[in-house]
Amino acid sequence: MSIKVSVIIPVYNSEKTLVSCIGNLVHQTLTDIELLFVNDCSTDNSLSILKNCSSQFPDIVHVLSTQENLGAGGARNLALEIAKGEYIGFVDSDDLADTTMFEKLYQMAVSENYDIVDCGFYYQSKDISILYTADEDTHFLTDTKRNHLICGGGYLWSKLIRRELIEKYHLRFREHVILEDMDFLMYLFAVSSNIGNLHEVLYIYKDSPSSASKEKDMEKYCNNIMQAMRAIYEKMHILLNYSNIKLSVEYSIIQLYSYGINCCLKYRRSNNTSLILKYLSQLRHLKRDYISIDYKNNPYVQKKIPDLDQKLMQKNDIDPHILVENS
Q1: Which of 43, 64, 168, 189 has its CA 20 to 30 A from that of 144?
Q2: Tell me: the pLDDT tens digits for 29-49?
């Protein structure tokens, strides 16, 4: 049997949401689909739920297990090694994919021979529906469209991606971290030939309070931000078309720089000042190493990052002590 779509679902302590997530996946209207659930060393009943599901739907459900907790990125990597689908989809175990999602995305992908197809999603905690890929950025990708997509960001789980493209560049996720999909998705935007969008809301993003991205520890969050900054630069700056997408890539790194600064300032009253200064200084050095275009000359920074945040970054560029003392 030829597999049309492989859906990869990392699972870590998701017993409260897993059953509903599974229910919509095993009843997808697309035929010839495989569901690759990766238990990432869960300590709750997630694995038993997955095994029960596999016994009920042995033809489409496959359960993998990591030997150590790798984070969502490492769990996805394990599944990518065995995925057989023509296209790859991703679902988070606390979210819901509409039962028609992968049939509709696949039909659009093959009808237009797209590398990537994006759909709308419902952001539950904000009560809004979003489609990240604008109409003007679809079909054949020009440098302008690539810049827009890189700046716009988005999420993996609203997209269907040609597996051949992932394997051509041997794209894999960073492990043991959050923000692991930023450089992955940006690289795809940089190298894909085309992209399509579907004007339907086919995914519910629940934005669970226990989500891995809700990292509350300042040190861990800052370390993850700095790792993401490094990964973006290291992965993107060696591309042949880097000079054509440099503005959007640098904007993305600057955006992370701003996140890091705000994180440090948020915790400055409850943490050791010397620790705050240490991370602000490290962020400053990374920004200096990776950014060659001044803020005022980057149109994406000027359009998307508020003036107050730009002023905070400029203070930190001069001296983190000035930022801490005057903010």
Answers
A1: 168
A2: 999 999 999 999 999 999 999
Please, are residues 147 and 186 in contact by the beta-carbon 8 Å criterion?
Answer: no
Alpha helix positions (H), the chain: 15-26, 46-56, 71-80, 101-112, 143-152, 163-168, 182-191, 218-236, 242-266, 273-290, 299-304, 307-318, 320-326
Per-state percent for the chain, helix, strand, coil, to nearest 5: 50, 15, 30
Closest CA to 64 of 85, 41, 86: 41
Note whether 129 and 123 are within 8 A (CB): yes
Query: What does the buried/exposed string (b/e) look like for 166-179 if buried means 16 or more CB atoms within 10 Å of the residue's CB?
Result: beeeebebbbebbb
Burial of 117 (0-12, 13-18, 19+ CB in 10 A): buried
| C-beta separation of 39 from 57 below 8 A | no
Q: How far apart are alpha carbons 174 and 204 in whole angstroms?
A: 25
Count Cα atoms within 13 angstroms, Cβ side, for 144: 5
Give CA angle at 131 (125, 137), nearest 5°.
Answer: 150
Q: State pTM to two decimals.
A: 0.94
**Cα(146)–Cα(189) distance, integer angstroms:** 6
CA angle 115, 96, 56 (to 5 degrees): 100
pLDDT tens per residue, range 180-232: 999 999 999 999 999 999 999 999 999 765 555 545 688 999 999 999 999 99
